[in-house]
Amino acid sequence: MQDSTTVKPHIMERQAYLQKEVAEISAIYRRCFPGHALQLVVEEGDDPARTDPVVLDAGQAVQAQHLSSQYLGRIDLPGPHPDAPVIRAVLRIPRTPTKGEIANAEAPWRAPRVLRPLFRVAPGAYEYIRYTAERFRAGRIRRHNWKKLPFGKGSPILVPSVQPDAAARPAILIGFHWLEVGGAEKMAFDTVNWALAAGLRVFVVASVPSIQRLADRLPDHPDVTFIRLDRYLPPRLWPLYLERLAIEENIRLIHIHHCSHLYASLAHLRVSVPWIRVLDSTHIVEYVDGGYPRMSGVWSNYIDLHHVISGELVDFYRDRFHVPHRVKLGRMLTRHDGEVALPALNMTVGAKVLRVAFIGRYYYQKRPIVMARTLGALARWARRNGVELRATLVGEGPFRREVEQLVRSYGLGDAVEFLSASADVPGLLRKSDILLLPSNNEGLALVCYEAIEQGCIPISTDVGSQREIVPSGLLVPHDPGAAVRRSVAIVNRLWRDGTFLAEQGAAMQACYRRLAADPTAEEVLMPIYRAAATGAPALDDIL
Amino acid sequence: MSVLTNTAAVIVTFNRSAKLARVLDALAAQTLKPDTIYVIDNASTDDTEAVVAAKAMPSVRYVKLPKNVGGAGGFHEGMKIAYEQGANYLWISDDDAYPEPDALEKLLDGIQDFETRHKWRPSFACSRVEWIDGTLCEMNTPMPVWDWPRFLRADSLYALVVSCSFVSVLIPRWAVKEHGLPIADYFIWFDDAEYTRRIARSYPGIFVPESRVTHDTPENKGVNYSLVTEKSLWKFAYGARNETSFHRRERGIVGVLGFANRVRTEMKRGNVPWSIRRRIFGAILKGWSFRPPIVQV
């Protein structure tokens, strides 16, 4: 439009958003290229998350393929002197997400077109095909490197002269995978709070561009800064930016939570800012190719300490990377004073009502279809035995719609309640007999701790480190059909056999107590954070 | 939310130079003028080209098509060109619809205000279309969604709609990018309803009653098969074929049978002669195997 002179509220809001993002872009590039003049071409993105920033090589001009109709303008940042070389970049400012995009990261799931009719009539058969295909794929996947990258200790003769700005209070850089819902992310948020409590300033980055729905859960504190490298800086430039950040902000410690770009920056950081200490936290060994623990192990020579949350991971680092001396176990539990008081089981033998809970995101990893089929099978079991089945399912995600339809098709529309992810989970578990967790893969599911604390019996697939918290009598096979059958068989035996019920209750409480006796993540990490806040010598002593 | 508001008007015309001249005058008088006005001439044989040239409006781009491809083909071409030329918003209208001076401004304000207030992106914003006597123009009545008053309040007069006609509708660029162009092969009728329903899959459009246009049609009648006559049969036949094709694509045989039953009932109520009824049913049969492609941008 040609002649809009009136400033309307919605226009002002858009302009304010753009100005905020332009300030963020300018700050990132100014820090990354202090010796250059910068010409930053800015466009409006039509995606709420993906931005694909492009930084042109020195001397390269902007080409038509870099631009689109969404061109907004150019930010010019002068160099330190008139002859400073020029760096050009083409950057997109993402649009603000809609309500629907905030509520659901992905569109509702539908079975692939070819298999849709099969899914309609036999969801179990579909699930089995997918399970088999995934196992087949896992067997054929091209393996990543599992060798530790070599790195020497260096010589005191050649110590770089660069030093961090001692005038700035010590700081920590915490790398997230993303700021979305997840167990690893919960841990990462906890570490932000612990670092603040230890007296560190906190800088947060995330490696995966996304809406970062939980960014507002970062403490609203002047010492916490979320830098949007995920939006505006290509991964290959992260090391250069982080070097400058470390020097200017007196970064003493880096803590990596499944943040691949931070791992990839370690080589440059170790050489350019050698005073920095690095630790990482890992949660889950991906059955396909190791996932983040593999990545962490490969970079082990660049990392001072691997914090892990399960015994399985301790063994993994020992057996695959031979670094037991650099691994510390810290459970995702809160330390209680004295003996942990665990309540009696909610389930009783021969009860007329069976209360089942499912708590998790409706993603394939949690296998919500298997959970729904288990509910269907339990409903048939309940009818045969004159038991009333009630289920409460908590969570959001692309599979939720299909689960709702399946549940209705089993005639359980009135017996099953769907709650949002913000529901009172401990309150629900306190009123539930059984927690279903038929996941495809898990690290060590936090919800199992919570279930046992509330007297609810978890029935879980035997994946990841689940056997550390769930007794073998309550574990079910990975195969989807077998998982459904075994889950019903376990419930049946718990319901009929008082001795079995008592044994499993005692066994799961023993598991919990064994885990509760281990150090917590906070106990492992806080001394390191405090040492980092105190100064380099203290940190050298502890790591 | 976008701060970019490069807007293109797309007007399809055929042998109505006098009315087109009034449309161009109305666009020149807009409080927010479109950056570009594409006049898509469906191979008119009157003085359309001379009338457009005489206006000497620098924002007008006159595109003469080699043959008459119908309203659907004209809108398809016009929107394709406007999109390729980088329009952020496309205002689509007929050559006999005269927008009030603030019609475009209200539509753009409506989309942007709605996005800011409610954090949803309407796939289009349509005007209130009135006939020459100020009453509602029957054929341009938008179809509401089931929860149409969700955001309708005294201070926010937006009703949610799932389809509207190509008479003063503002379509954001993202909707064209995601859903493609109108189906040119429809030639005439139902191209607008199909297209707006298609883009409304992302999110419904909004009806902006403060934006008003006058549709200068010879008579004020809706699209109802009880009204089909020998003279209007050719248009209704295109409509029946196109709508059948749409229902087949969206809902399969059930949708087609439902549509055929509605047409049958309407023709029965209107006591339409059997010779015409047969030809309409023939068009429905044709529509069953009519599967025009959707062209993406």
Automatic annotation (TrEMBL), chain A:
<dbReference type="GO" id="GO:0016757">
    <property type="term" value="F:glycosyltransferase activity"/>
</dbReference>
<protein>
    <recommendedName>
        <fullName>Glycosyl transferase family 1 domain-containing protein</fullName>
    </recommendedName>
</protein>
<feature type="domain" description="Glycosyl transferase family 1">
    <location>
        <begin position="356"/>
        <end position="473"/>
    </location>
</feature>
<dbReference type="Pfam" id="PF00534">
    <property type="entry name" value="Glycos_transf_1"/>
</dbReference>
<dbReference type="InterPro" id="IPR001296">
    <property type="entry name" value="Glyco_trans_1"/>
</dbReference>
UniProtKB/TrEMBL annotation, chain B:
<protein>
    <submittedName>
        <fullName>Glycosyl transferase</fullName>
    </submittedName>
</protein>
<keyword id="KW-0808">Transferase</keyword>
<dbReference type="InterPro" id="IPR001173">
    <property type="entry name" value="Glyco_trans_2-like"/>
</dbReference>
<dbReference type="GO" id="GO:0016757">
    <property type="term" value="F:glycosyltransferase activity"/>
</dbReference>
<keyword id="KW-0328">Glycosyltransferase</keyword>
<feature type="domain" description="Glycosyltransferase 2-like">
    <location>
        <begin position="10"/>
        <end position="113"/>
    </location>
</feature>
<dbReference type="Pfam" id="PF00535">
    <property type="entry name" value="Glycos_transf_2"/>
</dbReference>
<comment type="similarity">
    <text>Belongs to the glycosyltransferase 2 family.</text>
</comment>
<dbReference type="InterPro" id="IPR029044">
    <property type="entry name" value="Nucleotide-diphossugar_trans"/>
</dbReference>
